[in-house]
C-alpha cells in the first residue's frame, strides 16, 4: 500500500519578506531554536503556508544571513511562501502576537523583486565592551586599520579556516558609553558580507592580536554585548557610523507602487 504524504504540496501564490529582531535574552536563541519557534508561530497565527513536495513536506521558508548565537539583532530577514494572498500588515501583527516577546516582527512586504540575498551587502554592528577604556580600544583600532591585511583563525563546519578580516572591515569607530571614557568602549563597525563571513568576534580577535597591551586588564572584559543594527545594500553617502546601508526591502516597496 502506497504511503500518502501527510500534507499535499501547495505551490506559493504569494511570497512575503519579513524583517525581525532578536532582543534581550532571546539573543541566546540559536538559529535552529528560532526556526522551531517561527514555525509554531505560523501555525498559531493561522498563516496559510505553501509546502514543499515529497513525503516530508516543509513550509516554504527561506532564511538570510542569520546572526550568530549570542548576538542581538534588529535586522534579520526571511521569506515565506503562502498558499493564498494575505495582507502583509495583518500577517505582521498576527505573527508578532504569536511569537515570544524578544522575537519581534518589525516589517513585512510582498516580495516583488529577485536577488534579495545579493542586496544584503553589508551589516552594521554595535559592540559594547564593558570594562574596556576608550583610549585602549582606540589604540587597538588604529593598529588594525593601519594594516592592509590581518589574518585570523576560526573553526567552521568545514574545519579550521584562516581568513583576512581587514578586507571585510569597511569602517570602525570607538565611542564611550557615557561621559566617562574609562568605563565602557562602544565599537561600531560596518562589515562587508563576504565568504566566509567575518563576524564581530573575528574583529575582536583581530583587535586583541594587535592591541599595544593585549595582556592588560582592560581586555579581560565581561562578554561583549553585540547587536546587528542594520543589514542591507551599500548606499551612496556616509554617516557618522561609516558607509550608509540602505533598506533591502525598499526595492519591493517601490515595485509594489508601480
If you had to describe this structure to a student in words, what would you say it looks like?
The protein has 258 residues and is an alpha+beta fold. The protein has two domains: 14-111, Alpha-Beta Plaits (2-Layer Sandwich), CATH 3.30.70; 121-245, Alpha-Beta Plaits, CATH 3.30.70. Helix content is 24%, strand content 34%. The chain contains six helices and twelve strands. The radius of gyration is 21 Å and the shape is elongated.
Helix-strand layout with pairing:
Layout lengths: L13 E9 L8 H15 L15 E4 L7 E11 L5 H11 L4 E8 L5 H4 L2 E9 L3 H12 L5 E6 L2 E6 L4 E8 L7 E9 L7 H11 L14 E8 L1 E6 L2 E4 L4 H8 L1
Parallel strand pairs: 3-10
Antiparallel strand pairs: 1-3, 1-4, 2-3, 5-9, 5-10, 6-7, 8-9, 11-12
Which key terms come to mind for this protein?
258 residues, alpha+beta, Alpha-Beta Plaits, 8-stranded mixed beta sheet, two-stranded antiparallel sheet, 12 strands, 34% strand, disordered N terminus
Task: Kindly state the number of beta strands.
Answer: 12
Q: What is the SS-derived class?
A: alpha+beta
CATH class of the largest domain: Alpha Beta
The total domain count is 2
Query: How much of the sequence is in beta strands?
Result: 25-35%
CATH architecture of the largest domain: 2-Layer Sandwich
- According to CATH, the fold-level topology of the largest domain is Alpha-Beta Plaits
Give a quick account of the main beta sheet: strands, pairing sense, barrel closure: 8 strands, mixed
- Distance between the first and last residues' Cα: 52 Å
Q: What global shape is seen? A: elongated
How helical, in percent, are the residues?
10-25%
Q: Compute the average pLDDT.
A: 89
Helix and strand string, N-terminal first? EHEEHEHEHEEEEHEEEH
Runs in which pLDDT lies below 50 for 5 or more consecutive residues are 1-6
The number of distinct helices, counting runs of at least 4 residues, comes to: 6
Rg over CA atoms, rounded to whole Å, is 21 Å
